Amino acid sequence: MSEPLPGLYSYEVIADDAGQRLDHFLHGQEPLTAWTRSQVQQLIRAGQVLVNGLACKTGYRLHNQDRIQVRVVAPVPSSFTPAADVAFSILYEDDSLAVLSKPAGLVVHPAAGHQTHTLVHGLLYRLDNLSGISGQERPGVVHRLDKDTSGIMVVAKNDGAHRSLIEQFRQRQVEKSYLAILDGIPRTTEGRIELPIGRHPVQRKKMAVVLETGRPAVTTWRVLEKWSCGFALVAVGLETGRTHQIRVHMAAKGHPVAGDPVYGRKNSLYGALGIVRQCLHAFRLAFRHPVSRELVAFEAPLYPDMLEVLARLRAQVL
Known about the structure:
By secondary structure, the chain is α+β, with helices and mostly antiparallel strands. It has three domains: 7-72, Roll (Structural Genomics Hypothetical 15.5 Kd Protein In mrcA-pckA Intergenic Region, Chain A), CATH 3.10.290; 89-170, Pseudouridine synthase, CATH 3.30.2350.10; 175-293 and 300-315, 2-Layer Sandwich (Pseudouridine synthase). It has helices at residues 22-27, 37-45, 119-126, 159-170, 245-252, 270-273, 304-315, and strands at 7-12, 49-51, 54-55, 67-72, 89-93, 97-102, 150-156, 175-183, 190-194, 197-199, 207-209, 218-227, 231-238, 280-288, 295-299. Strands 5, 6, 7, 8, 9, 12, 13, 14 and 15 form a nine-stranded mixed beta sheet that branches. The longest helix has 12 residues, at 159-170. The mean pLDDT is 91.
């Protein structure tokens, strides 16, 4: 299925299509069928879709004889200067995607306070091509990790691969597994947390469990090791992908991620254990390859800082 070429596309609504949502209607029109519905929605939100000359919301209900214009623009090439000194490891690469391991302390893409030396700057230096549909500030970026969370990520090298991966994330078809050191020991060896997450009602830069208006969020966990000093190593799975999900859910259950400066707590043992950042690592990622459709899986080893914390816990060096 070919990608829509840059240009202006026009459609007229007939009686049979009246009452449909705008995004649903466009998703069924050529050549936009090559895109996911979420990508069509992004187009509408960007003001590139006009109905009778006016911008509309994605859920606008169509009327008979509505005239729709869709402007598809070419991806804007990134204006950032590639940087050779951004540290990350490429675990796998082909013509469609690259799988990498990001160290803690590295911001994924430019944002307020972090305009240079992000992962994106390093990607632009080390990869020949990156998809452009996420905009010039996020070339290739399909998903992200928090600055101080280490571990595995996948980036897209063309728009077709990007849309395939985005759709798999949206459909919850991507397996995401993490390793976390918790400040506290869960009462059972495994469990499932199903608590909605939304913006904190007062501290707007934080997320929180918000029962009435939060979005559904599900986290599973299994204890791998535990120590009498009050720490545990757990394997964590995500059935959803909310911002700060693991950190918020673990804190809500009373055993936050060790070293988490936002959702965690102070602990006098952190110094002896060498804990200097949130002990959270994206360990495994599995998905369907955008071209072959085969199930592929990749793992990123723990970084030395978390390995050292585990070594001290196992030796009870406190």
